[in-house]
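Archive entry: two folds, one per protein. Generate the first.
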Amino acid sequence: MHGVQLAVSDDHAGLKRAIMETLPEAHWQRCYVHFLRNALDYLPRKQVDDCLLELRWIYDRHDAEEAQRDLASWLGRWQEKHPKLCAWVEANIDETFAFYRLPRAHHKHLKSTNLLERLNQEIKRRTLLVRIFPDEASCLRLVQALAVETHEEWVDENRYLNMDLLRDHLKRTLPQPKAA
C-alpha cells in the first residue's frame, strides 16, 4: 500500500508497531472512543458523567488549536479534583488528535475505529448466515466481495469519505515542488 495518510487503532502496542513499520508515511490516530474508555481507569465511577462528557466534547472542535485550548481549560477545571486522570490525559491525548490533519468532513469518521468495527460486524453477520463454508477459499471470496462493496460505498459514492476533499487538502498543506 502507498499513499496512506492515517491509520486508526486502539492503543495495542503490537498493532502500533506494525502500523509504524508497514506504513511509515502514515500518521497514527488512537481511537478516541477507546481513549475515553481507558480514562475510566483514572476516575471514581461517580465522576464519570461530567468529567468525561466535557473531555469528549474536545473531539468536536474544528481544529487542533481549538481542541488544545479547550483541553487546557478542561485540565484547569479538573486538575485539583482528579490529578491522576489529568496527568494521564495530558500525557496521552495528543495520540488522539491526528485526525485534525485531515479535512473537517473526514473528522467524524476517522477519529475512531467505528468504521472498522462496523465492517467487522458485517463480515461476522454475513459469514454466520452461510454457517458452513466448503473451504477456506470460499470464505475468503465472501469477505473480499464484502470488502470491495464496502470500499465502493465508502470512497466511490462519497458516502463516508469524499477523497476529492482529501486531495485538495493535501495540495494546500503539503509543500509543493519548486519549478525548475
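Generate the second and append.
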Amino acid sequence: MKVLLLKDVYKLGRAGDVKKVADGYGRNFLLPQGMAVLATPNALQQAEKIKAEAVKQRAALNQEMSAVAEVLGGLSLGFPAKAGETGKLYGSITTEDVATAIKARTQVEVKRQQIDMQPIRSLGEHKIHVRLTMDLVPELTVVVFREGEADPTLKAAPVAQTETAAEPA
C-alpha cells in the first residue's frame, strides 16, 4: 500500500513523503490516526504543499522544544535497585520509571513512548534518548546502583541543603 504522510512518523518518514507500507499498518494505524492518506494522483499533487506546511510546523515545534531539550540534555538520573552479585537486577528499570523520574526532577512531562530505550536489567551507567521531535533527541544518563549505596548522580551540596532544610521543620 502506498501512502502520503501527513505528519512526521518516527522510523518511517517526514510529512509529504510517499512511502510503501504494509497493508495492515496503513489501514489499521496510519489512516485512522490521520497520519497518512492513500497515495492517489489527487493526493500526490498536494505533496509539495504538505511538505511546506510541515517544515513551518516542524520549525515552530523545534523552537518551542529547544528549551526542554536544554533542560533534559546531559541530565543524570539515579535509580536504586536490588541486584545479585553479578550486577544483574532482580527487576528492571522501564520507560515508565524514567518518565516518572524526569517529571520529579525537572517538572517536564515526557511520555514513556518518547523514551527510546530497552528495559535496563544491570547495574551501571546507561545512555538513553528522549525523542521530543524528529530533530531534537537529547541524551540522558541513567545510573543504576545498589540499594543502600549513595546516589552517584547527586552532588554533595544538594544533599547538604536538603538536610538543613529538613531540620527546622
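Annotation attached to the second fold: Residues 156-169 have pLDDT under 50 and may be disordered. The chain has five helices and nine strands.
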